[in-house]
Design brief:
This protein has 95 residues and is of the alpha+beta class. The chain has helices spanning 14-25, 30-37, 62-67, and strands at 2-11, 48-52, 73-79, 82-93. The longest helix has 12 residues, at 14-25.
Length: 95
């Protein structure tokens, strides 16, 4: 069974998402950016989504979770909840 570890930053506008992405590209720590900018309750944990399986998050984010390179940040990805920057931390298949 595939398990994914990831974290995210959720904001309300694509402009803010792009601004935060630039800060990450300039070397800012993803967890600190999540604590400062994310509008999701996960901000307190640096944006951590914990460990989960496919189909447990917004479908728009699924391609990043399943195919994104470990350690890279993707986005902004639009969902019904806002705009997300997503970092995949690990992907493990427990057969």
């Amino acid at each position: 069974m595939l398990r994914i570890k990831a974290r995210h930053i959720q904001v309300s506008t694509p402009e803010l998402a792009n601004e935060v992405m630039v800060k990450w590209q300039q070397g800012a720590d993803f967890g600190e950016l999540a604590r400062s900018y994310s509008e999701c309750p996960t901000a307190r944990q640096g944006g951590s989504l914990g460990e989960f399986g496919p189909g447990h998050m917004a479908p728009e984010l699924e391609p990043v979770f399943l195919q994104g390179d470990i350690g890279d940040v993707y986005g902004p990805v639009a969902t019904a909840n806002g705009y997300h920057l997503v970092e995949v931390l690990a992907r493990t298949d427990y057969a």
